[in-house]
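Schema walk-through. Below, the input block comes first and the output block second. Nothing else is stored per chain. Lengths vary across the set, and this one has 164 residues.
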Amino acid sequence: MKVAIFFGSISDQSIMKITEKVLHQFNISYKSYVISAHRLPDILSNTIKKIESEGTDVIIAGAGLSAHLPGFISSKTILPVIGVPIHCHNNYGSLGGIDALLSMVQMPKDVPVATVGINNSYNAALFAIYILATKYQNIKKLLLEFKMKKKEKLITEIKQHLLS
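--- output ---
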């Protein structure tokens, strides 16, 4: 397993499913875990140790509200952690995901968390792929092909727009 995906609640699954789809597209092995940093800190700590021993390269962690999950994970490992702030629609105290975003980007010194936009688990997966591409040539090749196809598609769309 190259990537471990964490989220603090089942309600976050719909957002984090996008991460899984992107990693699957690049044939990258991953495993997802639903573990609350607040409610199950011992289980989370043990799981982090387990994934480290299994050779995981990158962690993606999605969380809403106070969003402590990515920071908690970062405090327990030296693996890169990518945080996905999640807008919790079913919580009256939600601030539209801004609360989660600020919790992640304002991590204290020595506890780094790379953070993407609110609900943007797509970019979290892509950033993980960029990290993996520095180590694995097969992933680098797929990423370069992916970027070239995106570029060619954009150029085609622009040309079609100019001709219409």
